[in-house]
């Protein structure tokens, strides 16, 4: 996606209403393939940029972790081959395809322990536990960028080569079973066997037009279940779901 006058918010019917090194306010835009230092995304460009952005950047922007300027700059950095910082748990979801719920089950800790590690950083007594359990060097856990993706792919292979990893991820400790019951009865109102799959989801934001490719398998089940079971009434335009630090589900759906 190229930034140019044709998709600039200051292009009003080929009249520039901005002020930059290329055009002054009120000047006619001669070549709309040009690009200046005063460019700003129009609605179509913004909408497409959000839909096509790597999920970890899109989620960071939607959840107000970064502003739009940072979001757009980091997309440019990725396209230029530059390293972009990423929260290790977002990187794990992106590379491993597992959630913070899965990590808590695997490490036999509460969801709150993993939530705190993501939002506040690793406690000293937990760092080696996470490193050993996830097969990730401590230095990457503490400081992660997109340049670490190749190393994380190797870590993923080691992680899933360990005996019983996949079966362990399916475990239902009491706190996860309570979560599944809440999802089944009060949040999604679905059969308990579906709720047990959905209980593996820590957070997701989906909007009509978003590709499902970047979502984990349990997230795809969540999205597809909602689409199948609501389309007979009104189509779903977007849905947002996340667990707070107390492992309480928060769900929002718009039709």
Instruction: Return the average pLDDT rounded to an integer.
Output: 93
Beta-strand residue fraction: 5-15%
**Helices and strands: which structural class?**
mainly alpha
Low-confidence stretches: none
User: Main sheet: which strands, in order across?
Assistant: 3-4-5
Euclidean distance between termini CA atoms:
29 Å
Which shape, going by the Cα principal axes? globular
Rg from alpha-carbon coordinates: 21 Å
Helix content percent band: 40-55%
DSSP summary, beta strand count? 5
Largest sheet, strands/sense/barrel: 3 strands, antiparallel
The run of helices and strands is EEHHHHHHHHHHHHEHEE
Counted by DSSP, the helix tally is: 13
Report on this model:
49% of the residues lie in helices and 8% in strands. The protein has helices at residues 43-52, 55-62, 68-79, 88-96, 100-107, 111-120, 124-134, 138-142, 149-161, 165-169, 174-187, 192-198, 217-230; strands at residues 11-12, 15-16, 203-207, 238-243, 249-254. The chain has a three-stranded antiparallel β-sheet, with helices on one face. Strand 4 (238-243) and strand 5 (249-254) form a beta hairpin. Helix 2 (55-62) runs antiparallel to helix 3 (68-79), helix 4 (88-96) packs across helix 9 and helix 5 packs across helix 6. The radius of gyration is 21 Å and the shape is globular. The protein is mainly alpha-helical and 255 residues long. The longest helix is centred in the C-terminal third of the chain and has 14 residues, at 174-187.
Short overview:
The chain has 255 residues and is mainly alpha-helical. It is built from 13 helices and five strands.
């Amino acid at each position: 996606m190229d930034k140019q006058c044709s998709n600039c918010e200051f292009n009003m019917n080929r009249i520039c209403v901005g002020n930059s090194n290329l055009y002054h306010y009120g000047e006619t835009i001669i070549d709309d393939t040009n690009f200046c230092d005063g460019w700003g995304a129009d609605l179509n460009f913004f909408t497409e940029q959000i839909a096509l952005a790597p999920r970890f950047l899109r989620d960071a922007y939607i959840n107000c972790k970064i502003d739009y300027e940072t979001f757009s700059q980091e997309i440019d950095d990725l396209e230029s081959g530059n390293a972009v910082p990423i929260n290790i748990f977002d990187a794990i979801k992106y590379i491993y395809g597992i959630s913070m719920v899965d990590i808590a089950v695997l490490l036999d800790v509460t969801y709150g322990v993993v939530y705190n590690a993501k939002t506040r950083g690793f406690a000293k007594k937990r760092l080696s536990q996470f490193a050993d359990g996830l097969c990730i060097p401590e230095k990457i856990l503490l400081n992660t960028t997109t340049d670490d993706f190749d190393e994380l792919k190797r870590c993923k292979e080691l992680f899933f080569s360990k005996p019983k990893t996949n079966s362990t991820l399916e475990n239902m400790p009491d706190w996860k079973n309570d979560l599944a019951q809440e999802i089944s009865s009060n949040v999604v109102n679905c059969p308990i066997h579906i709720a047990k799959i959905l209980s593996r989801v820590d957070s997701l934001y989906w909007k009509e037009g978003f590709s499902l490719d970047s979502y984990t398998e349990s997230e795809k089940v969540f999205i597809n279940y909602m689409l199948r079971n609501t389309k007979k009434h009104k189509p779903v335009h977007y849905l947002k779901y996340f667990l707070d630090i107390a492992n309480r589900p928060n769900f929002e759906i718009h039709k």
